[in-house]
Amino acid sequence: MSNAFAEAPAPKAPLYLYIDDAFRDWWTNHLQKPPIPADCTVVRVHNAIQGHPESLRLWKKHIDKILQQLGLTPTTHEPCLYSGDFHGERVLFLRQVDDFAVASSNKDTAIALINAINSQMRIDVKHLGIIDRFNGLDVHQTRFYVKITCEKYLLKMVKGHEDLLHNIPANAVPLPADSAYIRALENATVPSTLPEKLALKEKMGFNYRQVIGEIIFPMMKCRPEIAPHAIKLSQYMENPAEEHYQALRDILSFLANTIDDGIYYWRKSPRMDLPIAPMPVLHPDNYLIQDNTPNQEKLYGYVDSDWATDSVHRKSITGIVLVYAGGAVGYKCKYQDVIAHSSTEAEFTAACDAGKMLLFFRSILNDLGYEQEDATVLYEDNNGALMMANAQQPTRRTRHMDKAFRYYLGKTNSRLCATKYCGFRYISTLTCFAV
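and the corresponding structure tokens:
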């Protein structure tokens, strides 16, 4: 929508702009209107305008009203995501400020919806056809699956670091997952003076803070397997050691050699109007997404946690991933807020956090018409946390976890969540969803 803010009504308080020579020339020569009198110095603005603090809210209210008039209803917790029946067909609609995406099984229905929106706009929405790119994501539409990647972004990023990546061997994983390697990063000797910092930066040949920012984007979009490593290395942005530079370079090398990796979402039935693409070659340890046929319309999740492996502040790390249609739809990798007294506490704290995410995604799916009737299964690998959840009985050593315990058990009792055992082969398996 190229004219988004100007489509919305003006703020309630009158808004005026000063008239300059460029505006006078545009008014007379472009619009072919009578010249503006010399004593007229301001003009009243009758629509929202880019840069005004209220414009974003006014545009949101304007487009929301139009979409709801067309029969689309926003979800409760993601008001930019709509669903509804249009011309007798189920339609999903996503708006991100002035970018729209329409999902329907019939192309004519999507075009009709766009035309209906255009009928209430002064300047038409630009129709770009079947989606292949949206807000930095590359979308591959194939007969059996939809795959999202960051190929174009990564190609551009790698091109900017060609000298840095020269003669660096390809990595099979972002970084080693063993505790000895992580401990070496935590105990690395950092520069103590500004000249030392500048000398190290020049020696390594790149800006540490800049590259951290560059890898955060694909991590957030569709590359969750680098999340724990990117989060760890981002702690040293202010004063990185040589070991941190080398680790960040290794992540950059991993991304450079896996540019076309991404997340696969499997269709319920083939789309015969779309091309056939190669089926993904799955890594033996990446078993979580191999099951591409059953439970496509059921949300389920995996949660794991280490226990105080960070030698600096001893906080545990939570890893969560939620799966729908065979691919990750939500994931989180973060330090826990408190220091866990046991591995069971760390795991149960992670499960509580995962339960909140499950409820959020269940609500969205229910609002979109894909109701999750059964309890959402959350797979956990700690027997202590599993027994606490399923037996619904705290122990003497977990009384300090009362609030988290009662919250998660409340959701278990109401049959919104169900906890099951799943043995993970690696602690980082939770985030290994890119193929």
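(Above: one complete record from the training split.) The first helix runs from residue 4 to 7.
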